[in-house]
Design brief:
Layout (H helix, E strand, L loop, with lengths): L25 H13 L4 E9 L4 E10 L9 H10 L3 H19 L4 E6 L1 H5 L6 H10 L6 E5 L8 H14 L2 E7 L3 H10 L3 E4 L1 H4 L6 H16 L3 E4 L5 H10 L3 E2 L17 H8 L18 H4 L6 E2 L4 H10 L5 E6 L2 E7 H8 L4 H5 L14 E3 L4 H10 L3 H5 L1 E5 L2 E6 L1 H18 L9 H13 L4 E9 L1 H8 L1 H18 L6 E6 L2 E6 L4 H15 L6 H6 L1 E5 L5 E5 L2 E9 L7 H16 L5 E5 L17 E4 L2
Parallel strand pairs: 2-3, 3-4, 4-5, 5-6, 6-7, 7-8, 9-10, 12-13, 20-21
Antiparallel strand pairs: 1-2, 1-8, 10-11, 13-14, 15-17, 15-20, 16-17, 18-19, 21-22
Helix pairs in contact: 2-3, 16-18, 20-21, 21-22
Length: 629
């Protein structure tokens, strides 16, 4: 978005602020700028802001340009020249006037978003009655104007800017802040200014459909906006996928090149491609978070214990332990560098022996400390910590470890807390992403099903499971079994359309594919064929020749088991017949059982509708069975 005093504009021009237009001399720059301002040679362009729910434009952002083929045509060149020549406010007022006149002349619908720097807002001329008269003359009441506070300079006096904005709100203006997420300062602006509109920086929106980190950031911003009744505007929507993801996240407003580029005479309603995207009942497949201990560090486990100096005596250490029954270890430092760790039970045990306290009480505490404790940097990952502790002597698990920052003492961590955190992360990872395939786990699967039902989308829930997998594990071992499960996961991902279809790993050899693709039956048939072909190298020649595996059955009898095959139970799901993921998962599991009754790889399609008091029981279509061969 165009920010009068920033280096970035929608067209992504990269002219540096310090770079002077080659065709102008320094002595001529101010004169050229004055000529543009006073000669009214500036022109306005407008970029629409889309209302995803109303399928219309809720307003337009007014942007500025210099004359075509002029060295000061681009916004960054214009405002760079203004900064160098101390003409920022003069240019800013000229821009506002130009934009207001053009907006009124074009009779564009909705609100007008105009950029204003804090310096401009605090300037007495901005509140001048003549400005209000000027807008009334144009037929633009303040209620149609949204003032975008640009962050081109630090706000040092928040009470004054708050007072100014309160006055403007009393007149009917609304306030927006720009580029949320670009820095910490605009987060403070949000809390101090409490704007009606918040624009999320384009960095977090462009490519959001394929980037989990961006997705999570924007989701958090949306949640925060809902708590303070602010309207989010997503900038930088450049593809249909960006728009679909923003729409399905519940963000009502968007702006970007996919919607429309800035234009001097913009269309007053969205084009057909945008409307088709908004009207599409397909649900975006959100990028999935993969729980990973690599992003959790020793800093998470750190708690501060006041260390004791290396020259302190053992009596002082004893008094520390005696005064704090919860204190298990005491770090020893020389300056702020850790040199040892004293264990509570070790010291008390030594002092409990006859005459030990009398002999050693006044001796330096370094005498009883462990001179080689585990010392880790605060940025060490949980994985690294677990590996270090597993290879260290057993007493380190009880003593814990010292945490440092650039070699200086910052606190201690305990082995107990580390084990608890690792366990918690493993449970979380299993719920959100299967550790074997890294595919989404049960929680994301259930959330996606509920989103599909809420949107009223007709989809196919396909439960995939391996037949005769236990005998295969018994004969070939769990490592080979894991390889087959990974193979199946890769095949299902390959046959699915990543833009429409959701592939989840329930656990073990059970998978669930939620198809929005119209050709989902063909995709399932392809998965069956691919599995039968690609699983062959996992068997030895003898098993392939006899067509099965020799192993025990559930009664302990040695029998011939068929080779593993793939069964898929498919359920045609519609929101009028199912209300939650619980019902979908139960019905899909039943369809899978029907598929497993057939020998070899097969697809069973359950077309019968569920029993309901308000709906007919059967649509007259019998269930279908499709064999792989």
């Amino acid at each position: 978005m165009f920010n009068p005093f920033s280096h970035q504009i929608p067209e992504r021009q990269t002219t540096q602020d310090a770079a002077f237009p080659s065709s102008l001399q320094v002595s001529d720059e101010a004169l050229a700028l004055k000529a543009l301002i006073h000669g009214q040679q500036l022109s306005a362009v407008f970029q629409p802001l889309l209302d995803c729910r109303a399928h219309s434009y809720m307003g337009f952002e007014g942007l500025i340009r210099g004359p075509e083929n002029h060295p000061l045509h681009s916004p960054d060149a214009l405002f760079g020249a203004a900064r160098r020549n101390q003409m920022g406010l003069e240019l800013e007022y000229a821009c506002l006037q130009t934009i207001l006149i053009a907006f009124a002349h074009l009779r564009l619908p909705g609100k007008l978003f105009v950029n204003a720097s804090p310096a401009c807002l605090l300037d007495p001329r901005f509140k001048d009655v003549e400005n209000q008269t000027f807008m009334r003359h144009l037929g633009l009441p303040p209620s149609r104007i949204v003032i975008e506070v640009t962050e081109n300079q630090d706000i040092t006096d928040f009470p004054e800017i708050q007072s100014t904005l309160a006055y403007l709100r009393s007149l009917g203006f609304q306030i927006a802040i720009d580029d949320l997420g670009e820095g910490f300062s605009n987060l403070r602006m949000w809390s101090e200014i409490r704007p009606e509109y918040v624009k999320i920086d384009r960095h977090f929106i462009t490519g959001i459909g394929q980037d989990d980190l961006k997705f999570q950031f924007v989701k958090a911003m949306q949640d925060l906006a809902e708590t303070c009744s602010a309207h989010i505007i997503a900038e930088g929507i450049e593809t249909a996928t960006d728009l679909q993801t923003v729409r399905d996240l519940g963000i009502a407003h968007g702006q970007g090149f996919f919607i429309a580029r800035p234009h001097a005479s913009p269309l007053k309603s969205p084009n057909q491609e945008v409307l088709d995207m908004l009207c599409s009942r397909r649900v975006a497949v959100f990028p999935q978070a993969i729980a990973s201990s690599s992003i959790t560090t020793a800093r998470t486990l750190l708690h501060y214990i006041e260390p004791i100096a290396h020259h302190a005596d053992n009596d002082q250490v004893f008094l520390r332990f005696e005064s704090d029954p919860q204190l298990e270890v005491l770090p020893v430092v020389e300056g702020d560098i850790p040199v040892g760790l004293i264990n509570r039970h070790t010291l008390i045990d030594r002092f409990s022996r006859p005459f030990r306290r009398e002999l050693y009480g006044k001796k330096p505490c370094t005498l009883f400390m462990d001179p080689a404790p585990l010392v880790v940097d605060e940025n060490a990952t949980v994985q690294e910590l677990g590996l270090i502790l597993s290879r260290a002597a057993r007493h380190y698990l009880f003593d814990g470890f010292i945490v440092t920052c650039q070699g200086r003492y910052t606190g201690v961590g305990s082995g107990h807390d580390l084990m608890a955190l690792i366990t918690e992360m493993q449970i979380s990872a299993a719920r959100y992403a299967n550790p074997l395939t890294q595919l989404p786990g049960n929680v994301p699967i259930n959330e996606h099903i509920d989103r599909l039902l809420k949107a009223g989308v007709r989809f196919a829930a396909c439960y995939a499971d391996l037949d005769n997998f236990k005998p295969f594990n018994d004969v070939y071992g769990y490592r080979r079994g894991d390889d087959v499960i990974q193979l199946l996961g890769q095949i299902l991902v390959e046959v699915a359309d990543a833009r429409l279809d959701f592939v989840g790993h329930i656990g073990g050899d059970d998978f669930l594919i939620l198809f929005q693709s119209n050709d989902w039956e063909a995709r399932c048939a392809r998965a069956l064929k691919m599995f039968d072909e690609q699983v062959m190298p996992f068997f030895n020649a003898e098993d392939l020749e006899r067509g099965g595996l020799i192993g025990e059955n559930r009664r302990g009898e040695v029998v011939l088991h068929p080779l593993p095959a793939l069964s898929i139970g498919a359920l045609i799901a519609e929101s009028c017949y199912y209300e939650s993921h619980h019902e979908i998962s139960t019905a899909a599991a039943e369809a899978k059982k029907q598929a497993k009754k057939q020998r070899g790889s097969s697809l069973f399609i359950e077309r019968r509708r569920p029993i309901s008091q308000n709906l007919p029981h059967h649509d007259g279509n019998p269930p279908d069975l499709i064999l792989a061969s």
